[in-house]
């Protein structure tokens, strides 16, 4: 009887040791980025900017890659009031261009290069890619609704005015009214770029983050 | 916001481009970096050892010595480096804190030296990482206890305690007999009398030789008077001691509830009960039983013996493990007793008359005592009896050392698990505090930002610089990001209390508005009533922090009612709709109200109940606003 319970304790101790080993195994994945000159040629950043970027990147992710969990954690630090995991998931997919489940420094730099140093066309392209969840070239209302809900989730609960249930849906309707020219229920890349270029607010806000680095 | 994550702020801001096509209003301007310096290496010379790091690394924590301008006091012009005449070993940990965001505590370091260094560099010890926090707290507690002990012994040796009341000196004398000679004397006297009392109890029962009449008498009855006098003397001393302790105790209630005082009471009660009760034949049996309690006087020795106290404390702390041991033993005993009973049921003149009667056999056998007063006679009984004794060896003898070591292991493990749970709770609480801190920082800076815009319009710029002193560049960039999110969704962040207030008030106001539209004017009056109530508490939006959006909105809505000429627009209004008519304001009022409008986003298209309102009227008024407002931050976009 006592022996049995004694054995139980011993087994439990073993189990905890196993999980510790598992965690250690996962952390041994390492990734080294391309050479600095290569990255400089591929992206629109200078060497110094790349250096600063890499230092910050490597500081937060010493293994050289960001997996989705870490990404969500990092992103949620910026939005303490709401829940940014869904939007971080979409962002992660937008950055993870080769869809291997992790964002390496090259993916990171290419994404930032488009966002900060790209032409307006490229930026709009990137945004379209973000909204098009299944990457089929069309933004449907459902996809847009998911994105919209993710954005509104980041606001959290304590907002003014109070967030209603169908606020995201209404926002999607507004969006589609503006973007969907031929009213076929989906937004293609050309419709998107065309409508955005007509809206001066959007054009102006695209230039907003020029000097972030 | 953690320091390491600050490096990802540019990424988060860049990713905000994803919101732009979705937003309906224009975005606020990004904060400009007033003096953008190239990142430079700075050299920190700590007692000859040179550390180098980037300037931005140190600026991650602006409220510490190294992160603020305080380090300029240590700048050495000749060598162009910062010189600190402090311990380089500890500085390593501190610099690592800036680099990684985690403060570690090296185990070889003295705790007070470490604390001093942390205080010098302006770092709070609470941010020590979880990996080292337990160690740090343990060492700190040990140190504090040692200091307290040192202080106490110092005080004792000094002997010149100023102006302790008589009561306090007595209590100190009782608790610590080494304080004065009188206390020591008292200590030894009570100890002596406890011993005397215990020996008396023991000797009382010894047969003391025969009295003429061939009867063997115990000493207690032979020398009854002598023993009675001795007992009386002891009890008198104990009573006096107890009463003195009761008088001197700083907290009498706590003293009465303490274990030692209960033991004291139980030790002297039997004597008094015996005195009170007459020598009645019926109760003499009970009286004799009471005398048993006199043996508790031996526990009074625990005041005199440190070892006894430690043993008691150990037992108390291992109580759960001991209880478990007892429980499993009880299970074994019951099982074997049942088996033996049924095995021996058949045999004649069996001593195993019932299962409880078999308990005795099982216990005696399992602990390998084997008195032999109960012995199985049937073959089955003997088989099970032998199994019982063998398993007794296993059950009791073998695991005892294992259990003893298990006790200490499990005990420490439990303590660690509890500590981990407490740590986790503390860590979650810290994360929550940090989160609320950062969101509060944003709300606070938003209000300051509003103040800025108001001041800008009224032409004073010195105050603006004064209010933005507190926020670093990273913070202002973060706030800009949150502001963009607000603009994208056309909702604003507010804090919890405001939110609850709003919920309550909007539920109050939605109730009347859910009736027919004809009541709208009445509804308008109710809002004016409510806002009038609020108006007493708020000043103009400019002068103080505009504490509640709702209040300022309602204030505006009252003014709106006063100057509106379009009753058609007031139909079927809810409180949310009200504010969208703020656009009419510039037409009627001066710049004071204009500043308040700036802060309120007015999305006519987004109000859920606003379908009934004719949309074309709003763009017309919106364009009015866009021409009259001078701020470039908020415009009601023409949709």
Topology, please?
The complex is a heterodimer of chains A (213) and B (639).
Chain A: H1 2-26, H2 36-42, H3 47-60, E1 65-67, H4 68-76, H5 85-95, E2 102-104, H6 105-117, H7 120-131, E3 138-140, H8 141-153, E4 159-160, H9 167-179, E5 186-188, H10 189-198, H11 200-206
Helix pairs in contact in A: 4-5, 5-7, 5-8, 7-10, 8-9
Chain B: H1 3-6, H2 9-15, E1 41-46, E2 49-54, H3 55-58, E3 75-76, E4 81-84, H4 88-100, H5 111-121, H6 130-158, H7 166-175, H8 181-204, E5 207-211, E6 215-218, H9 219-222, H10 224-248, H11 252-257, H12 259-276, H13 281-292, H14 306-317, H15 319-344, H16 355-366, H17 379-397, H18 399-458, H19 462-467, H20 473-489, E7 492-493, H21 496-513, H22 520-535, H23 549-563, H24 575-580, H25 585-588, H26 591-598, H27 617-628
Parallel strand pairs in B: 1-4
Antiparallel strand pairs in B: 1-2, 3-4, 5-6
Helix pairs in contact in B: 7-10, 8-10, 10-12, 15-16, 15-17, 18-26, 22-23
Characterization of this structure:
The complex is a heterodimer of chains A (213) and B (639). Chain A is mainly α. Helix content of chain A is 63%, strand content 7%. Chain A has eleven helices and five strands; from the N terminus they run αααβααβααβαβαβαα. In chain A, the strands form two sheets. In chain A, strands 1-2 form a two-stranded antiparallel sheet. The longest helix of chain A is centred in the first third of the chain and has 25 residues. By secondary structure, chain B is mainly α. Among the domains of chain B are: 115 residues, Potassium Channel Kv1.1, Chain A; 129 residues, Four Helix Bundle (Hemerythrin (Met), subunit A) (Up-down Bundle); 120 residues, Orthogonal Bundle (Helix Hairpins). Chain B has 27 helices and seven strands. In chain B, the strands form two sheets. In chain B, strands 2-1-4-3 form a four-stranded mixed sheet. Chain B has a two-stranded antiparallel sheet with strand order 5-6. The longest helix of chain B has 60 residues. Chain B is elongated. Chain B starts with a helix and ends in an 11-residue tail after the last helix. The C terminus of chain B is likely disordered. The chains are: A mainly alpha (213), B mainly alpha (639). The interface between A and B is large, with 67 and 76 residues. Strand 4 of chain A pairs antiparallel with strand 7 of chain B, so a sheet runs across the interface. Chain B: It is found in: Cell membrane; Cell projection, Dendrite. Chain B: It is a multi-pass membrane protein. Chain B: InterPro entries: BTB/POZ_dom (IPR000210), Ion_trans_dom (IPR005821), K_chnl_volt-dep_Kv (IPR003968), K_chnl_volt-dep_Kv4 (IPR003975), K_chnl_volt-dep_Kv4.3 (IPR004056), K_chnl_volt-dep_Kv4_C (IPR024587), Shal-type_N (IPR021645), SKP1/BTB/POZ_sf (IPR011333).
């Amino acid at each position: 009887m006592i022996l049995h319970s004694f054995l139980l304790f011993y087994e439990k101790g073993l189990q905890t040791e196993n999980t510790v080993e598992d965690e250690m195994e996962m952390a041994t994945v390492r990734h080294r980025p391309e050479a600095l000159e290569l990255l400089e040629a591929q992206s629109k950043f200078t060497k110094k900017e790349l250096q600063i970027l890499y230092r910050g990147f490597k500081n937060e992710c010493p293994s050289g890659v960001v997996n989705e969990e870490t990404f969500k954690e990092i992103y949620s630090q910026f939005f303490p009031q709401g829940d940014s995991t869904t939007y971080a998931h979409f962002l992660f997919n937008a950055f993870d261009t080769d869809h291997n489940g992790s964002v390496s420094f090259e993916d990171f730099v290419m994404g930032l290069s488009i966002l900060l140093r790209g032409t307006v066309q490229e930026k709009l392209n990137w945004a379209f890619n973000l909204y098009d969840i299944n990457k089929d070239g069309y933004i449907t209302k459902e996809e847009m609704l998911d994105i919209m809900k993710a954005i509104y989730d980041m606001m959290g609960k304590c907002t003014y005015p109070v967030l209603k249930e169908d606020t995201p849906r209404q926002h999607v309707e507004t969006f589609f009214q503006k973007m969907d020219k031929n009213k076929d229920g989906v937004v293609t890349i050309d419709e998107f770029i065309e409508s955005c270029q007509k809206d001066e607010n959007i054009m102006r806000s695209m230039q907003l983050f020029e000097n972030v680095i | 916001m953690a320091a390491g994550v600050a490096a990802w702020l540019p990424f988060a801001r860049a990713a905000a481009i994803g919101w732009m096509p979705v937003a309906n209003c224009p975005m606020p301007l990004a904060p400009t970096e007033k003096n953008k310096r190239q990142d430079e290496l700075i050299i920190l010379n700590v007692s000859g050892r040179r550390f180098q790091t980037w300037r931005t690394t140190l600026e991650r924590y602006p409220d510490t010595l190294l992160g603020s301008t305080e380090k300029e006091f240590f700048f050495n012009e000749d060598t162009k480096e910062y010189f600190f005449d402090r311990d380089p070993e500890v500085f390593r940990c501190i610099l690592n804190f800036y680099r990684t965001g985690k403060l570690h505590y090296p185990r070889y370091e003295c705790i007070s030296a470490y604390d001093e260094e942390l205080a010098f560099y302006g770092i709070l010890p609470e941010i020590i990482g979880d990996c080292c926090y337990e160690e740090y707290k343990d060492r700190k507690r040990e140190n504090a206890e040692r200091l307290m002990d040192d202080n106490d012994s110092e005080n004792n040796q000094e002997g010149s305690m100023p102006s302790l009341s008589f009561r306090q000196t007595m209590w100190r004398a009782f608790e610590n007999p080494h304080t004065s000679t009188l206390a020591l004397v008292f200590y030894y006297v009570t100890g002596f009398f406890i011993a005397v009392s215990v020996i008396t109890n023991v000797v009382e029962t010894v047969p003391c030789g025969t009295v003429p009449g061939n009867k063997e008498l115990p000493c207690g009855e032979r020398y009854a008077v002598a023993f009675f006098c001795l007992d009386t003397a002891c009890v008198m001393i104990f009573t006096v001691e107890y009463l003195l302790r009761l008088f001197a105790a700083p907290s009498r209630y706590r003293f009465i509830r303490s274990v030692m005082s209960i033991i004291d009471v139980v030790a002297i009660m039997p004597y008094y009960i015996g005195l009170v009760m007459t020598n009645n034949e019926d109760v003499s049996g009970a009286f004799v039983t009471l005398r048993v309690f006199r043996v508790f006087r031996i526990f009074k020795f625990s005041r005199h013996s440190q070892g006894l106290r430690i043993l008691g404390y150990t037992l108390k702390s291992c109580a759960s493990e001991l209880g478990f041991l007892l429980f499993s033993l009880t299970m074994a005993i019951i099982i074997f007793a049942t088996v033996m009973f049924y095995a021996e049921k058949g045999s004649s003149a069996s001593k195993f008359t019932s299962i409880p009667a078999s308990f005795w056999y099982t216990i005696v056998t399992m602990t390998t005592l084997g008195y032999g007063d109960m012995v199985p006679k049937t073959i089955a009984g003997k088989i099970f009896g032998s199994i019982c004794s063998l398993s007794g060896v296993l059950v009791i003898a073998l695991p005892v050392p294992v259990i003893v070591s298990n006790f200490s292991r499990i005990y420490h493990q439990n303590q660690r698990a509890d500590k981990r749970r407490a740590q986790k709770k503390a860590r979650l609480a810290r994360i929550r505090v940090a989160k609320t801190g950062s969101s509060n920082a944003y709300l606070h800076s938003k209000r300051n930002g509003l103040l800025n815009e108001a001041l800008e319009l009224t032409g004073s710029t010195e105050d603006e610089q004064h209010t933005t002193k507190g926020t670093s560049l990273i913070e202002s960039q973060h706030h800009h990001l949150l502001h963009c999110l607000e603009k994208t969704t056309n909702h604003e962040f507010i804090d919890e209390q405001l939110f609850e207030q709003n919920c309550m008030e909007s539920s109050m106001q939605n109730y009347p508005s859910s009736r027919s539209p004809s009541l709208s004017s009445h509804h308008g009056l109710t809002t004016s009533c409510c806002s009038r109530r609020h108006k007493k508490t708020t000043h103009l939006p400019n002068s103080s922090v505009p504490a509640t959006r709702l209040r300022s909105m309602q204030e505006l809505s009252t003014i709106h009612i006063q100057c509106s000429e379009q009753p058609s627009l007031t139909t079927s209004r809810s409180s949310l709709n009200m504010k969208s008519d703020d656009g009419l304001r510039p037409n009627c009022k001066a710049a004071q109200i204009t500043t308040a409008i700036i802060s309120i986003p007015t999305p006519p298209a987004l109000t859920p109940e606003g379908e009934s309102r004719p949309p074309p009227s709003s763009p017309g008024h919106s364009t009015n606003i866009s021409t009259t407002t001078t701020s470039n931050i908020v415009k009601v976009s023409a949709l």
